[in-house]
Write a structure and sequence with these properties.
Layout (H helix, E strand, L loop, with lengths): L1 E6 L7 H15 L3 E6 L13 H4 L11 H10 L2 E7 L7 H9 L11 E8 L6 H15 L2 E9 L6 H13 L1
Parallel strand pairs: 1-2, 1-3, 3-4, 4-5
Helix pairs in contact: 1-6
The protein binds flavin mononucleotide.
Length: 172
């Protein structure tokens, strides 16, 4: 299976990346092809709502930014994993921009399952991010939710969380 991980944290060695690394190791050890894209380090703008993609572009976005290289990755993935730090109770703006920009391609038909990986400072802060993930990804795309993983406070960068994420990747 081709697995695409979209990491919305701007911190390359942060807590989200730590969970993503453990997940990727497990999934790779299980024989899957894993690609991780650190989207917060890319030049990706918000949707302009110009409707070029739907009117003239035949699914191509008018904006010539780094999203151009991400569209084919999303369209060819069997599984998409959304990873993000919690910022003000929801996903990072950088990951949110990527999700909004899928407006051009609508539902990526090859994706069959998804997962969500979240890191935060506090406990009990995941409601809005999980609600968005369920409504705009799992239900809208019509895919299987393979799992939701969170780490807060001292759980961040812990061996316990690494093991949990590794096991999840390995189980796929
Ligand atoms: C702009 C900003 C907003 C944040 N908002 C929240 C929040 O609402 N709730 C929370 O528990 N932590 C919040 N945090 C803390 C991060 O979620 C936390 O430090 C996380 O582990 C960072 O992950 P990273 O190391 O992958 O970047 C915020 C951090 C930043 C920079």
């Amino acid at each position: 299976m081709k697995i695409l991980v979209l990491n919305g944290s701007p911190r390359p060695k942060g807590a989200t990346a730590d969970m993503v690394d453990a997940f990727s190791s497990g999934a790779s050890d299980a024989g899957h092809q894993v690609a991780v894209i650190p989207v917060a380090r890319k030049n990706i703008h918000g949707c302009l709502a110009c409707e070029y993609c739907h009117n003239q572009g035949q699914g191509r976005c008018v904006q010539q930014d780094d999203m151009k290289a991400i569209y084919p990755e999303i369209l060819s993935a069997d599984m998409a994993v959304f990873a993000s730090p919690i910022y003000y109770f929801t996903l990072s703006a950088q990951l949110q921009a990527v999700i909004h920009r899928t407006y051009a391609i609508d539902i990526p038909g090859n994706v069959k399952k998804t997962a969500l990986i979240l890191s935060s400072g506090d406990k009990y802060v995941y409601g809005p991010a999980i609600a968005q993930y369920y409504q705009s990804i799992v239900e809208y795309w019509g895919v299987e939710n393979a799992g939701i993983f969170t780490a807060n406070g001292e759980q961040n960068k812990s061996q316990e969380k690494r093991d949990e994420l590794y096991r999840f990747g390995k189980s796929l």
